[in-house]
Amino acid sequence: MSQWFRDGKPATAVSIDDRAFHYGDGLFETVAVRGGEPRLWQYHMERMTLGCERLSLEMPAVDEVRDELQVALGQHSPRNGDCIAKIVLSGGPGQRGYGRPPGTVGALLIGLFDYKPVPRQAYVDGIDTVVCETPLATGSPTAGLKTLNRLEQVLGRSECLAADAFEGLMLDAGNRLICGTMSNVFIVSDNSVITPSLERCGVAGVMRRLLLKALVERGLAVKAADVPIDELWNSDEVFLTNSQFGALSVRRCGEREWPVGGVTRLSQGLLAENGVGECAL
Amino acid sequence: MSQWFRDGKPATAVSIDDRAFHYGDGLFETVAVRGGEPRLWQYHMERMTLGCERLSLEMPAVDEVRDELQVALGQHSPRNGDCIAKIVLSGGPGQRGYGRPPGTVGALLIGLFDYKPVPRQAYVDGIDTVVCETPLATGSPTAGLKTLNRLEQVLGRSECLAADAFEGLMLDAGNRLICGTMSNVFIVSDNSVITPSLERCGVAGVMRRLLLKALVERGLAVKAADVPIDELWNSDEVFLTNSQFGALSVRRCGEREWPVGGVTRLSQGLLAENGVGECAL
Questions:
Q1: pTM score
Q2: pLDDT over 80 at A104, yes or no
Q3: Which of B55, B148, B173 is the closest to A22 by Cβ?
Q4: What is the CATH number of the domain that holds B68?
């Protein structure tokens, strides 16, 4: 079940001349609402603010976005206060033509969706993945951002569904591991923790950011770097992060299998300590 | 003035769960309607069909698309039968999540916009351009297609408007000339005609296709190839193609100026012979 809101009222449609519809001109955030509170709210709003800067869109006042979310939650009343809030900032209505006039005011929409937790067993045993054939284009001017241009993820995710895998790992056009279709990736090699650089493509997830901070504070050597695909195959452990599920071990990618590793378990523990209750084992 | 149609009726909105709005999941064509007839209709429909194959979207029957366009034109009655028809095929409604279930039926929308011809003088003297700072990501799985993921063009076009230029030339992340924000590019060097390869990014325009065919049939050496930016600066002539305006000479890009060249004039003549009346001088 889902429900959309705009300006505090239920919404079912967007204007046919909305720039998000025509060009994917806009940004979004998928926020985990748990017990009525949006998790990692500051990180989500910081990423959206950065996105607005890079796209020259006007960022709404964060307090107002928070107020609108609260109004929506008040009307939707999710069970236990748990749901997924999708916050979309579109480029707003426009005429034909790619150019966005300066001062265009975007449209803010908030969608609330049922939260379906990942089964407990997946946190314990890990999940299965495949490598997607769809590449991520490299050198993107929107690398790291969560824009509404997501065709690569649509194609990758559709591959993943066809393969009946939990997640698809995506490589860039240079055969480097970048991320999952809806998650970020960490690998552990020789006790060093590496997450792919997102300078050229990919989305810089909020859970990735939280975990990087937590690992560094725990004293682990962590770096964001290029990860040629062979480094994935040669790694000792692999796990994924995502705003909704926290962290999950990758137990398989195609033919390659991994045991659940120590850094993965540590990461789940650190996230649990930092408010991501799903990761408490 | 513009008017949108769906299923033969005026439309003002799209469903808030449309996949085009959320992911830019879909395709479009911008068709020149002249004297009531859609120009290069077959090329447009072939590109959309190819796009559907690559995106695993179901392509509507071309005859039905043509019928819907005709119904729309009948209601809109553009002056002299001249207008711009934007045909959008969106991924249709969906739930949250990137994956598109197999068998998803897309939504076909037709927008009719006023046609404002490029001033006569521009065909004679050429137009001014700039090089956009926004790069095109390279190695895109949708290279060549006209998808609804157009943020790079939005950013490039906005730069171009800020610079008050007619068009912005876009380079890929490897500093190769690819295309304009809304046009394709041809350069002439040592009597050889080159248009950038669109294997890694860019949109393969219908006017580019028509002109390539016409030039080859006229016996000219023409090739699609990589064009490092220096080859632009060292070229003897440069011109642009686009479904609406046909072909226009580039007389300036930043500080570099070019005279209107012989191949440009020949190209305008060939297009005029092939039904692109705007190019008849």
A1: 0.96
A2: no
A3: B148
A4: 3.30.470.10
